[in-house]
Amino acid sequence: MVAEVIINTTAKKLNRTFDYNIPKELEQLICIGSKVLVPFGKSERLEEAHIVKIKENSDFEIKNIVKVETGLTDKQIELANWIAKRYFCNISECIKLMQTPGTKSKDVSKRIQDKKINVVYLKKDFEEINFDIETKKIKSEKQIKILNFVKDNEGATITEIETFTDCSRTIIKTLIKNNYLELIERKIERNPLDNKKIKNTQNLQLTEEQTNAFNKIAETINKNTYEQFLLYGVTGSGKTEVYLQLIDKVIKEEKSAIILVPEISLTPQMLDRFISRFGKEEIAVLHSKLSIGERHDEWERIKQEKAKIVIGARSAIFAPIKNLGIIIIDEEHDSSYKSEASPKYNAKEVAKKISKEMKIPLVLGSATPDISTFYNSNNGKITLLKLTKRANKSNLPKVEIVDLKQELANGNRSMLSFDLYNSIEQNLKDKLQTILFLNRRGYSTFIMCRNCGYTVKCKNCNISMTYHSYENKLKCHYCGYEEKIVKNCPECGSDKIRYFGTGTQKLEQEIQKQFPQAKTIRMDVDTVTKKNSHEEILNKFKNENIDILIGTQMVVKGHHFPKVTLVGVIAADSSLNIDDYRATERTFQILTQVAGRAGRENLPGKVIIQSYNPENFSIQDAQKQNYEQFYEKEILLRKQLKYPPFCDIIIIGFNSINEEEIKKVSKLTYEYIKNGLENEEFKIFKPMPSPIDKIQNRFRWRIIIKGNMTEKANIIFNEMLKKMYDRDIKNTKITVDVNPNSMA
Q1: What does the pLDDT look like over 10-29, one tens digit per residue?
Q2: Phi and psi for 455 in degrees, rounded to 5?
């Protein structure tokens, strides 16, 4: 028997199968999906590979497979093949998504999988031990104390015995040496939910709209059929309660569920709701802030069917869950469901493929759906379910727009408009909470010499450095490079260096200056670097009488704070000014989501949006919190300009350390694609430098293509990648991304 294997590598040239002989003694252990170790090339080191096909013989002289390890199912291998073709990447990269975390490196894998501790047990029956000190079998009262403690606490560690008996480690080791006690290795199960202590809750009474949504989705669960639903509900309309009761139904039918959330900061609050309803034992959590050991153990719990509900970020869609009954994607409009790194998969598309194959419902939930999703729901491709009222009968907040041009005309150069300042002051008097949203971190967004116009840029990237006041450093938000602050201009020597733009650090400093009595807390990428820091900040804000939460988009989505009655948006224009056809959509979504944090209980909410473009329709419709009115305007623009959902945008990206090579490769690629798609309806733009033309000392170029991605076009793009890499390109990497998050 012969196996076709894929070598675990990112090298494009090796993105193909290789034949290996299956030794007789391994035939019973091997199947499609098995992970194996094989000799490869001239190296003496064994390489990891996955079996994708088994056949009778080979046309080549082949080597033997050396070892079989745990692997994937044939369904997972099939999915990996689909992802590789759909998203133009190596099959081995897709296989990694489905492997148990911590199993990529053999050394690390052993350390992670076998994390064990030594625990102490009695080696003799307690009744057989002679406690007569005079016979010198047991020599001291402390030995008796230890033995009594171990009798009542078998499985304790040496450290625990030391602590609770107040006896030395030497005495414990003596009892082990004399065969009264023994050390036994025990595997540690790392559960990230161990520290959660949450009261149980029961199902809430559903509203008429919630009941209708629940019944429609439950019907497909009963029939074991695939259907895609959009649960479109205003902020606070009770989408999560519908999720909970659907999953309750699935669990009662002895099936499992996956629920995806976009932000790690949303995971703690979502977890609390689910734990209170289902308990910790039923739930596994998967996200990047867990240690590799915790992710490994959670993956194993899922595989062993100890956990029936998986909650996590994008990659949780690949969890090895069995007997799946439903997939739910919360805040489905969020861009984080699309991977920016290879494989550049879209979790919503992967979820759709899995749901179709397993004949289960896929539920997408949002107050501000993705334009393409809502378009498909209007065309009947997705079943639309509406929740138009808040579940607790509270009113949507009152939203005001402040024209910052008028504020400047009135002599106000502060970051806070007069209205926002007065509202914060009143909230502090009323002992209510405020959220201030600014989608830029750091202190100042760029540094410029007023004498000659020189702007401080990263030495690795063609991008402005951001000033971070707390560390007193300049930082690049693309590659992480840091340097000391500039006091004199490197170009002209002038000391007229000025700091422009505003970030969350500067806003925090301003708030502390204007409201010294207020307790503030900040939540952005710089404050959530430590493990569990998201949860700690949110819990502090909720439980420790913090007056003002300042943050980036981490504070925008899904959070429920009963005492938040005021939300201030410092600069609504920041998302409008990006070079992207989705600028207005993202502005509307983020403003509507942040507005939804105010007045979620019985207290009335108020939202103040500060903008230099108050007349823009995305800001106007966000004020009315009218998604459908915004959608009607946006979809007409998309149709006129032929943007998604009326076409796909494909970006072929190039990055290289060699500027001449990148120009040559991008030109060759353009000619190949132009010839390949000449009979297809595609508009192909000539290669040009990317808007950010250098990151981490690598030049960046791109080709933009507009058209509807077909099976034929997919084949042409995959063939192009193979042809280009067959040319032995040394310094240039090529990527293909369909409908990317960023046009930069």
Answers
A1: 888 888 999 999 999 898 88
A2: -110, 135
Q: How many CB atoms lie within 10 A of CB 37?
A: 16
Report the amino acid identity of residue 339. S
What is the rounded CA–CA span in Å between residue 362 and residue 352?
Answer: 7
Q: H or E segment at 185? A: strand 181-187
Which 8-state DSSP code applies to residue 207? P
Under 8 Å between Cβ of 457 and 465 = yes
Give me 488's structure tokens: 């004199």
Which residues contact residue 630 at a Cβ distance below 8 angstroms, ignoring those fewer than 6 apart?
588, 617, 618, 621, 622
State the residue for tokens 């009143």: 426
Can you tell me the distance from the alpha carbon of 129 to that of 110, in angstroms, rounded to the nearest whole number?
Answer: 39
CA distance 1 to 579: 55
E strand or H helix that includes residue 144: helix 141-152
pLDDT digits (tens, 9 = 90+) for 179-232: 889 988 776 666 666 666 677 888 999 999 999 999 999 999 999 999 999 999
CA atoms within 13 A on the CB side of 96: 16
**Residue given tokens 């009222």 in the structure block:** 389
CA-nearest of 390, 257, 364, 248 to 321 is 257
Question: 17-21 and 2-7: which strand pairing?
Answer: antiparallel
Classify each residue of 323-356 as buried b or exposed e, where b means 16 or more C-beta atoms within 10 Å of its C-beta.
Answer: ebbbbbbbbbbbebbbbeebbbbbbbbbbbbbbe
Structure tokens at 336: 């984080």
* Rounded Cα gap, residues 264 and 534, in angstroms: 7
Measured N-to-C along each axis, helices 292-303 and 106-113 cross at an angle, to the nearest 10 degrees, of 70
pLDDT in tens, 495-523: 988 887 788 899 999 999 999 999 999 98
H or E stretch including 435? strand 433-437
Q: Say if CB 548 and CB 436 are below 8 A apart.
A: yes
What stretches in the chain show pLDDT beneath 70?
A: 70, 102-116, 130-137, 139, 187-197, 264-268, 529, 531, 557-558
Residue 391 is predicted with a pLDDT of 77
How distant, in Å, are the alpha carbons of 460, 472, 481, 499 from that of 489? 19, 17, 19, 13
Cis peptide before 320 (omega within 30 of 0): no
Supply the pLDDT for residue 693: 92
pTM of the model: 0.82
Tell me whether the omega of the peptide bond preceding residue 691 falls within 30 degrees of 0, making it cis: no
Note the maximum CA span of the chain. 100
